[in-house]
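Sharing a chain and its predicted structure for anyone who wants a worked example. Both blocks are below, sequence first, C-alpha cells second.
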Amino acid sequence: MPVFNRFAEAGRVVFIEYGNYKDKIAVITDIIDSGRIIVDGPFSITGVPRMVINFKSVRLTSLLIKGVQRGIKTHALTKLVTDFDLVNKYLETPEGKRQLARDSAASMNDFDRFKVGWSRAIIKRAVRAEVRRLKGLTKEEAQKSPEEDKDAKQKKVARLNKHRAILLDKLRDPGAICVRPRAQKGRTQKGPSRKLIYAASTSTGKPKKITLKN
C-alpha cells in the first residue's frame, strides 16, 4: 500500500486550480488555519504574488523545497526557488507534463489539429502494416478471420435447413399453389425475429399462416 507523503507544509509546491492565477504554481510559505494558507510564487518566477488562498483552490504536488521556514521573506524564497530550478523540475513531473500538453493543445489552431490527426493516422497505418508483416498476412487476410467466417456460415446453413424442414412439415397440403413472404406488421418486438409465410390452399380457399422462428 503506497504511503501518502504530500502534506501541506512550508516549502510544498502547489498548483492553483481556481482563481485569477489559475494553472500556475506557487510555494506555501505559511499556514493560517485548516482552510487557508499563504503562498508565494515568487511573482518574478511563476507570476504568483504573495497572497492568502483557500485549500480547496490548490492541489499539492510532489515537489518540496528544503529550507523554507514559515513566514520566509520573498527575496529569500526567490533565492531558494532559483537554486531549486522550480519551473523545470515541475515540467518534468507527471502533473507538469499533463499541464504542458493541455497548454499545447489549447494553443493549436485548426490546421495544427489537422496535422496532428493526419500524423496519428499515418502512424496507425504503419503499425498495422508492421503487424501484418510479422504475422505473414496480407491486408485482406488480416481484415477477416477464417474461423469466424466459417462458424457464421455453418450457423446460417443450419438455420436455413431448420426453416426448410419446418416449412415442409407444415405445407403437406398437396393443393398449396403459392408461398410468399410478407413483412410483419405492428410494433417491433424484442427477442428472436419471426417470419410470416402465407400459403394459399385450394382446399380451404383461405390463406394459411405459418410462423417460423430464427
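Comments welcome. Confidence is low (pLDDT under 50) at residues 174-184, 186-203, 210-214.
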